[in-house]
Amino acid sequence: MTLDFVRAPLPVRRLSVVVTSLSSDAHTWNLVFLQMLLEEMGCRVTNLGACTPDEVIVRECLARRPDLIVVGSLNGHGLQDGQRLIGAIRGRPGLATTPVVIGGRLDTTGGSGGQTSALLLEAGFDAVFDGAAGLGTFRSLVRTLAVGSGAPIDVT
Amino acid sequence: MNGIALRRAPSFGEVVAGHHDRGSLVVQPRMGFADPTVMREGLLATRDARASTVGTITLDSYTRVNDHQAVRHALATGAHLNGYPLVDRDPATTMAMLDGVITQQFPVQVRHGSADARRIVRTLLACGLSATEGGPVSYCLPYSRMPLAGAVDNWRQCCETLAAARTPDVEPHLETFGGCMMGQLCPPALLVALSVLEGMFFWQHGVRCISFSYAQQTNPAQDEEAVAALRALIPAYLPHARTHVVIYTYMGVYPRTPRGALRLLASSARLAARSGASRLIVKTTAEAHRLPTVAENVAALEHAAAAARGVERIDAVQDTGIYAQAKRLVDNAVALDEDIGRALLVAFAAGYLDVPFCLHPDNAGRTRGYLDNNGELLWQRIGSLPIGDLVDLPHSERMSSADLLNALKYVERRFDHTVEGGDLVLDAAHEHRSLISDHGSPT
To answer: Does B1 touch chain A if contact means CB atoms closer than 8 Å?
Structure first.
C-alpha cells in the first residue's frame, strides 16, 4: 500500500532493454521469448532481431542508451562473434559501462561452457548465461538492475 | 567432368512424378559436407538407401549470407563449415564430385536458405545441376535482414536465370520454402497461402516445374486438411505448371530421444502418404543435438520410407476453414498488383500478409498463433489479415513467455514422453479412421 502510494504520482520509468542476436545467427525464437519475458517483468524492450551486424547494434544502443543489453545466440558462433561485438560496444565511451549480458548456446561443442564463459567475461560481458538453467539468474539480474535504477518491476 | 551425362540427367520434377505414379513416396535428406569426398559418399549412400530417394547438397551458412571471404578463410585454414561451399569450390571439383552419382533416377537438389541466391543459382547450373529451393518471402523474412524488396528482386533474377537454362533435356526445378516460414506457430492457412503465392511468383518469372512445401505442424488431422487445401489450390492458380507437394518433417523444437525423433519422423511420413504428397524432407535422430552423419541420414530415409509404405491415401478431410482462409489470403494479395512480387510487397506493408512471431522489419508483426488443448494451431490475433469473417478468435489474447515456451516445446514433449503404445495416442485424431502404429517399421 505504502509503495503504491509513493509510486503513484511518479512518472513511470521502465527499465529500457535492447535484445539482439549476433551477426551470423538467424535464430529468433529465443529473442521473441526474451522480449516477452522482459516485458512481463515491466521492461521496455527494443528487439533488433536476426543476423544483426555489430555496427547496427552499436548504433541502436548509442541512440537508445538502454539500461541493459541482452545478446542471445544459438548457432554456436557466440564466442567468436560475441568477443568481437563486446569489443565494439566497450570501445564507445557512451556504452563503456552499460550492462551487457550474453546467453544461449555459445560454442559448437556444448561442453566447454566454463572456458567459453570465462573468455566472454574477460572480453567485457557483465554476465554469461549458459542454457535454460541460467534463466533464474537472469531474472535476478534484471530485478537488481531495476531496483538500482528506481524502475518499478514485477517481482512475482 | 562427364558433361554429357549430366546434361541428360532427367528433371527433378519428372523423377518425383514417376515415383508418385508408382505409389512411392520420395524421401530426401538435408545433407551437406564441406569435403567433396564426404559429400560424394553422402550422395551415394542416399542413392543406395532402401527407399525412393533424391539427393541433396546443403550449402554452408556463410554461403547463405554471401560471406565468401569467410568461406575462403575456412577452406584455407581447414576450419569447420556446416555445409558444402558450392560457390567457392571450382566447378570442376563439384562436377568430379558428382560424376557417376547422378543417374536417370537420381537427381540432386541444392538446398541453402539464401535471400540472395543469384551466385548459387548461376554456379549450380554451371555444375550441371538444375534443382534448388527458396523464395522471396520464405528465405528473407525468417533468416535475413535484407529488405523484402531486395529479396523479391534477387529471386526474380534467380527465376529468370533458371528459366533461361531450360532446354529440351533440362527442366529446372524450384521448390518454395513458403510452407515453413518460422517453422512453428504459423497457422496452416498462411503457410499454404505463402507456398501458393511464391509458386505463382516463380511461374511469373519463367519457372515451369515447381514444388510446394508444407511443414508438419502440431495436429495430424489439421495437417491433412492443410495439405488437401494446398493440393486443391495449386491447379487453380497454376494450371499449366508441372507441380508436386513436398512435406517437411517437423521444423520446430525436435524430440531429444531417438525414440521420440523416430516417432515424429514416422508420423510425418504417414502425413505425406495419406495426404498424397510426393516427397518428404526428413529429420534425423541427431536433429536436437548436432548435424547428422551420413549413416544417421540413411537410417532416417529408410525409417520414413518404411513408415509410408502401404499407407492408404485419404479421400476426405475435415474442413475447419483452412482452404477458405488460404484462398482468401491468396486472392486478396494477387488483387493488389498484376506483378506478384509487387503484390507481395504491398500485402506485407499493409499487414494483409503477416507472419506470426517474425521479427523482420518488413513484417507487420500484428498476428499471433497459439495451440489449443488438442494441439491445433489456431489464430490468436489476425492483425490486418483479410480473414476476419472466416475465423473465430479466442476471447483471450493473452500469451505469457511461459505459454510461448510451452507451445514451442509441445511436439518435443509429446513425442519424447509418450508411454508405450503411444502412437495411438499421438494419432488420436485418426483413431476413427485408421490404427497405424510404428510396429511395422525397422528400429
So the answer is: no
